[in-house]
Amino acid sequence: MRNLTVMRLRQIFSFVLILVLIFVLTACYSNTGNDPGTSPTNDSDSGPVVNKERVKRIAGGYWPAPPGFGGNLIGAQVGDVGYYVYESMFLVIVGTDRVVPRLAKEWKHEGNKTTVVLHDNRKWSDGTDFTAKDMWAYYLININSSAITRYLEAINVVDDYTLEFVWAEPVISDTQKMLLLAEGWQAVTPYHIFGEFVEQVAEIMKKGTPYTGDPTKRPPFGLVFEKDDQTALKNLYNDFKNVDMEKPIGTGPYMVDKVTNVEVDLVVNPYFPDSDKLEFQKIKMHTVSDYNSLLSSNETDSFVGTLPYDMARTILDASGTMVMYPLLEQKSVGVIFNTRVQPLNDKLVRQALNEVINKKPVREVANYWAVETGFATIGLVPSTIEKYVDKDVLAKFARYTGNTEKAAKMLEDAGWTKNSQGKWVDRNGRSYRFVIAANAGWGAQGITAASEVARQLTEFGFETEAKAVEATIVVSNMKAGAYDMMIDFVDMTWNISDPYKAFSSYYGDITEKAGIDLSAAPLILKDYEGKELNMKEAVSSLLYINDEQEYRDLVGRIAWATNDNAIAINLYQNVMAIWENSATSKGLPMEDEFKKYDRMMPLPRTEEEYEEIAILNRAYAPFAEVFVRNKVKPR
Amino acid sequence: MNYFLRKLGTSLLNLIAVVVTIFIVLRMMPGDIIEPMAREEASRLGITYEEAYERVADRYNYNPQEPIYQQLVRYVKGLLRGDLGTSMLNPKNTVVSILSVALPWTIFVVSISLIISFILGMQLGALMAIRKRGIINNSITFYVTIVSAIPSYIIAIILSIIFVYQLRLFPKSGVYSIDVTPGFNMPFILSVLHYSVLPITTYVITSTGGWILNMKGSSVHVLGSDYVFAAQARGIPEKIIMRRYMKKNAMIPMITILAMAFGGMIGGAPLIEGQFQYLGMGAYLAKALGERDFILYQGLLLCISISVILANLVADLLYSKLDPRIRLE
Lengths: 635, 329
Known about the structure:
The complex is a heterodimer. In chain A, a hairpin with a 6-residue loop joins β1 (41-42) and β2 (49-50). Helix content of chain A is 34%, strand content 21%. Chain A is α+β, with helices and mostly antiparallel strands. Chain A has a 6-stranded mixed β-sheet, sandwiched between helices. A 4-stranded mixed β-sheet of chain A has the order 3-14-13-12, with no helix packed on it. By secondary structure, chain B is mainly alpha-helical. Chain B has helices spanning 2-28, 34-45, 49-59, 68-80, 95-130, 135-149, 152-166, 186-223, 226-233, 238-265, 270-275, 281-290, 294-322, 324-328. Chain B is globular and about 90 Å long. Chain B starts with a helix and ends with a helix. Chains A and B meet through α1, α6, α7, α15 and α16 of A and α2, α3, α5, α7 and α8 of B.
């Protein structure tokens, strides 16, 4: 028996030894130079890291894995690669709303027309000249998907490099025109590739008849189509979406070289002006499942993602060279009240609950670097309020400070009392138990914020429970009255922080979630002078105001009335974290203060600082602005 | 022949039941996948929710308002033509094209790890049956207890931290290097091997324990059989008893489990493949579910179900070949 065991053990040992040998041999393969993830090199053991190849390694992002990857942006084949490949006429720096010309050289607003002259030295990455017809192609093929077409009468190609935008009556303000012209990428549909679709759309458009109905529901280019033509347009769009291109063709500084499911190699577009002067000659985008390890081991140069404070600190200490920049997002996280249910249909109760919440502990557990606001909810991105609302008006806004005594007094004044168990009961003797839903798709941020709010409300005397709910059912359940509150974005915009954008998103999406149906009945609120405002109409009128003071005045009134109505609690304005590797890049923002802050940098203190950091985030700079500015260089 | 036809018939019925169940269950799930996307679009473009909903539903080629029986008929007609549908998120991706990419990688990794873990499990399990006490038995029991208690994705993370980020011996993610050209060439083959080592190691570490225990149980059962005692009484050498009597008979149920395990593993381990971003069935399954790409999800589930049904059929047929009593019954 012993001999048998020894023999069997020998067999097993030999087998395991072979496996280990294979393991070691394959591991050695990584030293042959074939591994794509090779890091910038150290010239000596203690010397600086040298990025000789001028490569920027960017972690994260999304693109369809081959065979899904292709060159048709509208066909969802490109993903985040587009940030480096495509351009637009203008670029809006998110957060400051500064408009930077890109493909546009000059522009002029005159009456109901805006003339844009494009640069005449630009080419697509396949070498074809870029002309005004390419831009015209974009607006026509995306007739239904582009916000600007609703405010336009027509787009005319004046010559090879000049476009004329004819605005519909009533003409929107110059600011709104610029923001619409700068929205998204437009140089994404080369006419020499998609021309046949565009010409067919142009033919169908000729058959459209002028729209005469409600101006707020104006269709693209103010045209109404017969059912057959509508179907034809829809089919054309679907056919256009299904056009398969091997790689994206853009006018931007980079073009796609190679793609796998986890890596994309971008090289300089040789047709881009002064392409040889770009500091980074190659961009490597890569995804992994574990970004903490990636950052800790300095295996990347750039990443965007917010982490809890202790985790971020651990990564910075482990890495020794990574730098973290917090940056305010154009979004606030808040609690939306369900005004369909009692007692949250009562404004006084909503205001009292706003007063209960101490936002600091919520912010600390959910998003450490975020910025608390003293408002209930204002409809605007909070960090922009001083820019758009006069100081004397701002002084009239109600502030909520987490003062539970004041909150109790507010409820008592409204006839509420506390029962023997210390729970609040209304004047009819009814007590309430609240449920706060948090979108489970938000991960820890949603449910931790909800739990802390629930804890504070329970402590105050309203028994409250927090629930993580699947993203696809959370809103429908809220509408059905299953929850009393939900954690969601409030006071936000998707990209441009202009008040019209923020308010129009608020008076539509947020109000609907809160149970206010603006299509059923107008929402009339009073401003700080007691003047009644039809909120939807007031918001729409912002579009057409050219006078700055008049605009600020109306913005102040809408924001004040929104805050007073208190259908939500703005818990904090969200902050994202941008990570850069100082070992491989130089010229980074606040470089001389890395030591002072131990590489966990403060929020930007000026607009200039904000912009320098904002452009490091690909989603904030639709054009690969950071690479073109050449301020950040390979070390 | 009758036995084969009966088994084939049962498998076909299973397949029909699976097609219908997957289809209905996915559609009965609460929530509307279009809704969150439509809300975002309405807010971003400043259009009404209804208009945004129509647009998004159209873009994703999915209309939850369409009666379920109509959807089912359309789906089954497509299936009969070999069309499993198109990914909702990327019209360029048909489910069949995704399967043709994902399945080979999963089969590659799963079959290698299954062979390694099976061989190791058989040897160690038989060893444990022979040596019921002692340091070897205790060591193997300790190993099995530990790996059974640790979820596979934790092992994947530990391997990643050690071999990817600390020792930097293996790549972070993917199936082959971006710098090689796919095809029958040495750099590509070496790259594929290099990228597959950690997923295979994770599979082997986590699945060997099960094989060891199964083999041990089966071997102990065989060792207690009358024919083993009879062989011992006849003075047949221990080596021959172990090899011809114990191991051969103990492995019969193992072969059946092996066929079924292969079928089951075709689904990949979403968490293992997800950790290494290995482009197999598991990674696509996790991605499809995360993005709520139900058309892709149902196609992948169907493929996995078919492999399990096929594996079961093979196991049944194999078992009847190895043990003639099954056929008679």
